[in-house]
Amino acid sequence: MHRALALPVLAALLAASAGCADVEGLRSQGDLGTVHAPKTLWKDVRPAPPDPREQPGAAAVVPGLPKAAGPGMRGVNALDVVRADVTSAAAQDGGTGRLVDPRAVQRLALCTGAADGGPDCPVRPGVLHDLTGNGREELITALDIDGRLSELRVYTVRGDGSIARVLARRAVLEGVEVAAEHLAVREPTSNPAYVAVSDYEWDPKAGVMSLSQLTLDECPSLTDLPLSGDGSRCAR
Questions:
Q1: pLDDT class for 77, splitting at 50, 70, 90?
Q2: Beta bridge partners of 200
Q3: What does DSSP assign to residue 123?
Q4: CB-CB contact of 19 with 12 (8 Å)
Q5: For residues 45 and 48, what is the distance between their CA atoms, to the nearest angstrom?
Q6: CB contact at 8 A, 93 and 107
Q7: Helices (H) and strands (E) in the chain, counts
Q8: E strand or H helix at 178, and its extent?
Q9: Were both Cys, which of 16, 126, 167, 214 would link to 154 (CB 3.0–4.6 Å)?
């Protein structure tokens, strides 16, 4: 009698087990291959340390500019600031491109004496935004080098009225966004489905906009637009 009862119970258990496996989708993944540890390439080769005077991200007072009249950058001509900064940086790095693209000075020659530099001036209109959180506006602008590459610049006013560069970034500017005390730079990647997003925030100790986070973001769906020359739907 006990054996007769045991057989139906065992059959029910097997059926339940089979049902669970089917519902949960437990199936063999096949041969997943061998897991290999990462291999370091050129582990004996190290880059030379950077020259403290030639670090693009370092804060630097822009020489040759008058003291700012206000507590912030409002009222300061963006073109004058960029021209003084680029001229100084190009002389400092000796044309190596460490601090600024060597073509930047030539590009600035396209600007006229007009307040906005004229129609061919590659300096973008300045944007004022408080990035330091002290209630004073910083100046955000960019110098377009060749229609794709740009030199992004952020300037602030120090307590003594001097104008200082607090961010210098050479990039393909897919997008630049500001929110509160953050500045995000969106750049295309080798994968047309993603853009790299560099998030900068104010570092009061260093007195610069420091990189706080680097992430990947999906490109918006642009199926109605053709691919650009580099095969990307983001970098148009």
A1: very high
A2: 183, 211
A3: B
A4: no
A5: 10
A6: no
A7: 3, 9
A8: strand 175-179
A9: 167
